[in-house]
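Subject: mismatched residue count in predicted assembly?

I count 679 residues in my input, but I want to confirm that the predicted structure covers every chain. Input:
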Amino acid sequence: MRDNDAKTTIVEWTLRYGSGREQLLPLLHALQHEIGYVDDACVPLLASALNLSRADVHGVITFYHDFRRRPAGRHVVKLCRAESCQARGGVGIEAAAAKRLGVAMGETRRDGQVSLEPIYCLGLCAIGPNALVDGRPVARIDEVVLERIAAEVAA
Amino acid sequence: MTRIYISRDMASVALGADDVAQAFASAGCEVVRTGSRGLFSIEPLVEVETESGRMGYGPVSSRDVDAVLAGTHVHHLGRIDALPFFAAQQRFTFARCGVIDPLGMADYAAHGGWTGLDIARSSPPQAVVDTVKASGLRGRGGAGFPTGIKWQTVLDAPNAPKYIVCNADEGDSGTFADRMLMEGDPFCLIEGMAIAGHAVGAGHGYIYIRSEYPFAIDTMRAAIELSATRVAPFTLEVRVGAGAYVCGEETALLDSIEGKRGQVRAKPPLPALSGLFGKPTVINNVLSLAAVPFILSEGAEAYAGVGFGRSRGTMPVQLAGNVKNGGLFEVGFGITLGELVQDIGGGTASGRPVRAVQVGGPLGAYFPPSLFDTPFDYEAFTQAGGLIGHAGITVFDDSVDLAHMARFAMEFCAVESCGKCTPCRIGSTRGVEIMDRIIAARTVEPAAPAPPSGVLGQALYSRAPDRIDVSASAQTELLRDLCDTMKFGSLCALGGFTPYPVLSALDHFPEDFGAGVRKPLAAE
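Triage response: the counts match. Full output below for your records.
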């Protein structure tokens, strides 16, 4: 981990917004945005910056699905698994995506090129199955669109 | 220069609206990015300003610029508000959505914005609370608690400071009204929160938006900055969730803002008395707060004048899943489920018959077409064994396997449980196991129990897994027992309402659970 980046982010954040514990989630988002994940080495830094126990910080990081404790792939495909997408063939697309991208749901491919992550609802429920590909929304995913996604994440 | 309106809503962008907007801008048009009108089968939608009003074309691709500008495009729709899907609506809350530039302060004011806030601020707080009470507005997040009574409790609370919290953690599948409003008319929500602040004596508000809604987060943040002087001294900030569904539960949401694990609190104390940071807090859904400016500007009677029974006003219904005309349909309570699904929704997108609809997200019941005469009303839905929730309707065609959907409901509860109470944390996992056995029992004959051998074998026999009666009937009985425990023993609606989809699927579609005729292997 770029240790200094994390330290700088935390110090700058607390100087700007204060060091109350309500800053923990915004700070974790900021760290993940800067560095890509929340390294375990950040836990003691956060704990001392916000005057919390390390266990407390660890508990918060592990509670929320969004926070990664390891780097993600270079590309991240978040595929919706919720009911409305299922009603539009989501289960089949989930299996096809795992096969086409060569990575199981919830995993990062061994070469670090792509992560396939579950997400529960993007609020695009009448035009599913949906995904966020590197943060960009993609709707009405079928075999053709999946092929386009696969080409995109291969780059 | 021709003025063109194209939506910047996340759904429109997912369907290619950005490319279309780019193409029109390159062709020398003035492109105004609006929110979505709310009918996704015509997205990306382009509206061209003409002397006879805004003419709609959709769906349109970036190659269609010339045809649209010439007025010869095959998907010429005419005036959008004249289309049957829109003409049949009563848009109180979503009146501006899709029409105005979401971040245009002048546009908002020109379309009746800030009138409600000005009226509220010229009257005493108690009068504002009385108006909201008289409107009959009930919490749109799902519980349907009267908003005015909640505000009264906070107004009467002696403790200070007080907070306004907007629950924009819209995690239910099949719902997108909060997202559409925040992206399409963010000032409306800000105005509603400022009115709430005046009514109860709160100076600061939080909008807790789920991280899955990046567009809404950006739009709300920009809108807060633009309107800061207009709503001053009331201040607002956005807090971003982190992928935990349970944070849509109000007390878990408060803990999450406080920087803790999003675990549910036991009630009492009510958040109205001891909420955020232990202070009196109004916590309302986006749609509840966004309904308030209309109530103040048009009067409580205008709002309460539509509706059904004790459900007053309008509900932005969301038609989702396998439905032909999916989108947002705001209408007064009392319309039947069948009208919504068949007449307005137009049946399934796949063209196959509707087999089931799930109303109210992952914790809502599955309804068969035989219950389509149920009117959209809080009490009627409770009586029918379901709930309105956030008014999302997910349509399924006849290829759906309700046993798999029941299993998913349990699986989702297991993934999202906050872990604080046992019925939800452990019950959901046991529920998945039971559903697996039921699904297996549909196709495979249960194996005969193996006879015990030896002393130890005898001793362990009573606990051995193969002594479990894995027949569909025994497992179904166990499932009902488990659901009973979860329903009455859970701390919040996540564990408490997961039995709704499970039991409704079981009650209305017993054939999928192996009752009666044994189903052949599912063609998957």
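Chain B has four domains: 3-87, 105-304, 307-397, 402-513. Marking this ticket as 'not a bug'.
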